């Protein structure tokens, strides 16, 4: 198989071709300026073509589209994206669980204030549904109910540096918090346990935690269990939280994280997600 000539060879050949064209023009019978001009134009074209061939291609792939309000809403999962009998509800953005309200007991921690602050941030973020901090751009929320369990998804744009810091912080919580005590406004004690939770291998980065809160509600022993999955796609992220008084919702959270990531990637690619995900 013959090798293509190197760049210097192609340039030298182009120069010879240009010289031949100019010589031919000078020796023509009519000697008119139009013939010379034509030859010069051809020589110039040949030189330009040689330069283009010698220069490397440095183009980059198109950047993903910026997330818009409409795009954030389109990226949200639907009832068709998750199995079982989940029903979409209209007021998911107003959900609040009082089991998450409490002041962390600093005495539970070896490094006291720093670890206690991380765990307080976790409880507050779960309660206010801004675990990653306030979005820097468009955001949208949807939620589903099944019995006493809830499934919440938020899609939003963030500052990239702050988003990376939030993911790193979330990954540190199983060690930093482990198990601690929080006290509610009436003096009731709640035991909170934080462990690591798996997340499907999707998106550009991901992190998950499993949180359980044991205490009393209306005088009755109660345990709130939540599974949390966060997936970053570029400078955007989706956060899925699922669970309730009946236990965690690991499978539903995993499915929502996977389907939600695919929908977000589709939106950022400038396409519209299918209203009905493909089935096997």
Automatic annotation (TrEMBL):
Keywords: Signal. It comes from the Bacteria. Residues 34-51 have a biased composition (Low complexity). Residues 28-65, 244-280 are annotated as: Disordered. Residues 1-28 form the signal peptide. This is Lipoprotein. It comes from Streptomyces tagetis. The lineage of its organism: Bacteria, Bacillati, Actinomycetota, Actinomycetes, Kitasatosporales.
């Amino acid at each position: 198989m013959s090798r293509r000539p190197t760049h210097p060879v192609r340039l030298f050949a182009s120069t010879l071709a240009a010289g031949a064209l100019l010589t031919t023009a000078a020796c023509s019978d009519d000697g008119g300026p139009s013939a010379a001009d034509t030859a010069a134009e051809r020589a110039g074209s040949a030189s330009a073509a040689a330069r283009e061939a010698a220069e490397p291609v440095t183009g980059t792939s198109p950047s993903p589209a910026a997330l818009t309000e409409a795009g954030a809403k389109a990226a949200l999962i639907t009832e068709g994206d998750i199995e079982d009998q989940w029903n979409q509800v209209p007021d998911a953005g107003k959900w609040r669980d009082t089991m998450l309200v409490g002041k962390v007991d600093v005495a539970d921690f070896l490094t006291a204030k720093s670890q206690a602050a991380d765990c307080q941030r976790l409880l507050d973020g779960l309660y206010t549904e801004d675990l990653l901090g306030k979005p820097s751009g468009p955001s949208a929320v949807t939620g589903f109910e099944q019995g006493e369990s809830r499934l919440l998804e938020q899609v939003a744009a963030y500052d990239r540096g702050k988003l990376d810091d939030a993911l790193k912080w979330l990954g540190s919580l199983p060690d930093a918090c482990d198990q601690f005590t929080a006290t509610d406004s009436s003096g009731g004690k709640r035991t909170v346990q934080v462990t690591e939770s798996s997340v499907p291998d999707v998106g550009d980065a991901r992190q998950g935690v499993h949180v359980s809160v044991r205490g009393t509600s209306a005088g009755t022993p109660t345990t709130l269990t939540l599974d949390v999955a966060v997936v970053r796609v570029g400078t955007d992220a989706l956060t899925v939280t699922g669970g309730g008084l009946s236990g965690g919702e690991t499978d539903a959270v995993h499915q929502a994280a996977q389907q939600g990531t695919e929908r977000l990637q589709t939106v950022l690619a400038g396409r519209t997600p299918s209203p009905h995900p493909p089935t096997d």
